[in-house]
Amino acid sequence: MGFYDDEETALQYIAMAEGYDGRELIEVLRNHLQDGSSVLELGMGPGVDLTMLENHYLATGSDISQYFLDRYRDSNADADLMFLDAVELETERKFDCIYSNKVLHHLANDQLALSLHRQIDCLTDGGLVFHSFWRGEGVEEHHGLKFVYQSEDSLREIFGVSFGKVEVVSYTEMESDDSLYVVARV
User: Fold this and answer.
1) pLDDT digits over 143-164, tens only?
2) According to the 3-state scheme, what is the secondary structure of the chain?
3) What does the pLDDT read at residue 16?
4) What is the per-residue pLDDT for 184?
5) What is the mean predicted confidence (pLDDT) over 128-139?
């Protein structure tokens, strides 16, 4: 059982994340992706960003936590949801964009590289990825979860292997310039 499959720890995460969402990130995404496009959210968690994405896009939520998928479906019966591992991405579906908000930071750099390679296979022609990360250095573990911090340079290097056009931008979530987002196209 994973950290987010346990109801107690999943509810702790939901309480901790209260008040934080990807509203600003989604507004940036709208500058890069036309409304009505298809978007796959990796690691939707409780679905806060997914609900906002659905206001503009044909959004599909995914998570490796069955608890989060079931919880969201309980109040959104018609939601398009998929059980997906962010590295393997075992689906034949194609999307105009793949989005995540502070999800891929749980992956070691080699896993992130594999995920990005697989994401390309899940994109339509001209598709893009939009992912956010914690800015910093090193790896930490909290409550059994790994957090891999990234810099502008490390993200350009990792994304640059798979994507031709990579934009890395610093932004503030909790503290000044504590976060980075990446917009990349093949």
Assistant:
1) 777 899 999 999 999 999 999 9
2) CCHHHCHHHHHHHHHHHCCCCCHHHHHHHHCCCCCCCEEEECCCCCCHHHHHHCCCCEEEEEECCHHHHHHHHHHCCCCCEEECCCCCCCCCCCEEEEEEECCHHHCCHHHHHHHHHHHHHCEEEEEEEEEEEEECCCEEEECCEEEECECHHHHHHHHHCCCCEEEEEEECCCCCCCEEEEEEEC
3) 59
4) 98
5) 97
Distance CA 139, CA 64 (A): 21
- CA-based nearest residue to 119, from 131, 108, 109: 131
What pLDDT was estimated at residue 124? 97
Domains defined along the chain, listed by start? 3-185 (3.40.50.150)
Residue 25, Cβ density class (10 Å: 0-12 exposed, 13-18 middle, ≥19 buried): buried
Q: How confident is the model at residue 122 (pLDDT cuts 50, 70, 90)?
A: very high
Amino acid at 184: A
